[in-house]
Amino acid sequence: MAIHKLANYLICCALFLPLICNSTVADEPPILAFPGAEGFGAHSQGGRGGRVLFVTNLNDSGPGSFREAVEAKGPRYILFRVAGVIPLEDELVCREPYSTIAGQSAPGDGVCLKNFNFTIRAHDVIVQHLRFRPGDEPAAALLAKGRSFEPDAVTIGAPSRDVILDHCSATWSTDECCTVSGAGIDNVTVQWCLIAESLNHGAHHKGDHGFGSLIRCNGRVSYHHNLYAHHRTRSPRPGTYGPGSILFDFRNNVIYDSNGYSAEDPVRMNYVGNYIRKPNGPAFKVGGKSTQMYQQGNYQEESGTKNEDFWQLISSAKPENKREEPFEVEPVSTQTAKDAYDAVLRAAGATLPERDAVDARIVEQVRAGTGELIDSQADVGGWPAYGAGELPADADNDGMPDEWETQHGLDPAVDDHLGDPDGDGYPNLEEYLNGGEP
């Protein structure tokens, strides 16, 4: 009898142990896109597990170009072996999923895109330390041909999901600088970015149109630790397309010389720990009864005791707009508004390999309380020169310098960019790109 009981016990174990193990694994959240990724887009896979593609020239297209790498199929890490300005000849659209674009891999002073906008229409995309500065140089020729010229600097469009922009710089757009817009978008984070100097009276057919961010979708979006500076408005402008309602978490951002608002379309919004300096209107204006807003811990300079009840600084907010409890969102390490101000000015934008002269000037203007809306990048000197720098030796072409591999016990003669000696889920190449230990 005992043998039969033991046999039955072993059969039960065989049947149910895999279910228990699978349940445990399923309950473990996926690893982050990279250490420090937060918000709704924090679990983007990017190009994890894919091949390495190198950008080797500053051409608009062709072999070795950024466009060729962006349009390639399959999981991929896009690394740069060149520094400087890439003059796009038309809009560049990322339609293929599973890509990691690592601007921090560039030598010298890094990489900047000009002339046209960069748009993401894919899932699982990570973009770090890249500069988007279209400017207005193509406007005259295109308008003469009857074409419009109204580019954003960078756009996350439909049907994107699981996308994160981290430490990027977006300036000199004719429309918005950094936009998330389109039905079907979900799980997006824009963090530690510098979003500034949209061109106010540029080539837009509506006239003055220097705007920060249109964030309009029916999914979940996080914007945190970003710097907004020198926009007419839309810092931010959340909203919804079609049925449903955006869930928008906006926290620990710095807004200088701008303001934000919502419109009639439904919005569910947390507005938390933001620092406002010299707004060119109310810090935020509620556009209608469909806006549901939770606000807490925000601070506006020179507003005295009104900061104790920040609702006094939000225009048109009625009792039905005010929410007492925050909407449930993906976690973001949240600071006081004053601490966020210091952190954002210190670290926002494309800071690797170096913060460029444009971002340095804008940050200094925020600190000093100077600067103004601009109509053209020519008003502030245009694109700076970017030093080429020197590429570190990489004998096996796996994207990791020989010296770094040797220091970390890897073989510089073997392509081991997908190895994971410590078993933490981050391949060796990602450890290198994000300052980790393999």
Automatic annotation (TrEMBL):
The keyword Metal-binding applies. One of its GO terms (molecular function) is metal ion binding. Residues 384-438 are annotated as: Disordered. This is Pectate lyase. SUPFAM superfamilies: Pectin lyase-like. Keywords: Glycoprotein, Metal-binding, Signal. Residues 393-404 have a biased composition (Acidic residues). Residues 1-26 form the signal peptide. It comes from Bythopirellula goksoeyrii.
